[in-house]
Amino acid sequence: MGQMMALKVDLKSIEGEGDFPCPSCGTIISPDDESEKTYKIMDIETFDDGSLKTLTIICKKCRKTIILEGFELLKNE
Ligand SMILES: [Zn+2]
Questions:
Q1: How many angstroms does the Cα of residue 58 sit away from the middle of ligand 1?
Q2: Is residue 42 part of a domain?
Q3: How far apart (Å, rounded) are the C-alpha atoms in residues 17 and 4?
Q4: Distance (Å) from CA 49 to ligand 1 centroid
Q5: In the chain, N or C: fewer CB atoms in 10 Å?
Q6: Are strands 65-69 and 7-10 parallel, antiparallel or unpaired?
Q7: Higher pLDDT pick, 46 / 12
Q8: What is the pTM of this model?
Q9: Ligand 1 mean position to 57 CA, how many Å?
Q10: Which range marks the domain in which residue 37 is found?
Q11: What's the rounded mean pLDDT across residues 44-57?
Q12: Which tens digits make up the pLDDT trace of 8-44?
């Protein structure tokens, strides 16, 4: 429900340190930024071992729902 409008971003397909432009409005969103200035976390899904699987956020500028996946890549930081 409600995920029909969601945009998907796979962090594995993004170069750099995990920052990515919002697929809708281009605002740079950093998953490491916990100030929630550019986005708001709506839902967090984890694997059995507790590591991050997907993160559902809302871009504060365009209010689009974005589902982030591919966090496996960021584990070894
Ligand atoms: Zn946006």
A1: 8
A2: yes
A3: 28
A4: 31
A5: N
A6: parallel
A7: 46
A8: 0.81
A9: 10
A10: 7-74
A11: 93
A12: 999 888 877 778 999 999 999 987 777 889 999 999 9
Count how many domains the chain has.
1
Domain membership flag for residue 50:
yes
Ligand 1 is an ion; residues with CB less than 5 A from it: 22, 24-25, 27, 59, 61-62
Q: Which range is least confidently modeled, 20-24, 35-39, 45-49, 55-59?
A: 35-39
Question: Per-residue pLDDT for 59 more than 90?
Answer: yes
Report yes or no on 1 lying in a domain: no
Asked if residue 65 is part of any domain, the answer here is: yes
Rounded Cα distance, 59 and 37, in Å: 9
Sign of CA dihedral 2, 56, 19, 52: negative
Phi, psi of 73, rounded to the nearest 5 degrees = -65, -35
